[in-house]
Each structure stands twice: as structure tokens, then as C-alpha cells.
Amino acid sequence: MGIPKDKLNYMFQQLPSNYQDNVLDYMEFLLEKASKNHWDNIPEIDEPLNDEEKQLLNDDSGYVTGKEAKSEFRLQVDLP
């Protein structure tokens, strides 16, 4: 789908300058995201976890329920 450049320019010019800045920032983000596949940058690791890693995975300290996070961070969404 292609939006005519004159329509895109018109819409952009109708925005307040701070919104124009936001639009440009978001477009740069989308271009960067589209230009590379982030999964390609993650090295593949095929090795078993060591004892410390296993212990950290099984440790419940620091675990926060969705209800606690919602209250603490004043979130407006329900978390599991």
C-alpha cells in the first residue's frame, strides 16, 4: 500500500511540531527494525545450564505477581 507523498506531507504538516518529532522518531525506529532481523544477532547456545543458572531459575525471590506489579507501578492494565 502506498500513500501518495503529497497526502503524507499534508498530514505531517497538520501536526504540531512536537508530534512531528515523534512521528520522525517512530519512522526511524520502524526503518531500523525493518532493515535487520534481530533474531540473526542472537548467538545460538547449545550447552546445559550450570548449577548457578539452575539455582537462579528455580529461585522465587524477587518474583512479583501481576497484582503486586500493577499496584506498585500504578499500571492501568491487568497482568497475569
Summary tags:
mainly alpha, 55% helix
Q: What does this protein look like?
A:
The protein is flat, with a radius of gyration of 22 Å. The protein has 80 residues and is an all-alpha fold. The mean pLDDT is 86. The two termini are 37 Å apart. It has helices at residues 5-14, 17-35, 51-58, 66-72.
Set out the fold topology.
Blueprint (H helix, E strand, L loop, with lengths): L4 H10 L2 H19 L15 H8 L7 H7 L8
Characterize the largest beta sheet: strand count, sense, and whether it forms a barrel.
none
**What is the strand content?**
under 5%
Would you list the SSEs in sequence order as H and E? HHHH
Mean pLDDT: 86
Low-confidence spans: pLDDT under 50, at least 5 residues?
A: none
Q: Please tell me what the overall shape is.
A: flat
Number of helices: 4
Q: Which percent range fits the helix content?
A: 55-70%
Indicate the radius of gyration in whole angstroms: 22 Å
Task: Count every beta strand, where a strand is a DSSP E run of 2 or more residues.
Answer: 0
Distance between the termini: 37 Å
What would you call the structural class?
A: mainly alpha
Short recap of the structure:
The protein is mostly helical and 80 residues long. The protein has helices at 5-14, 17-35, 51-58, 66-72.
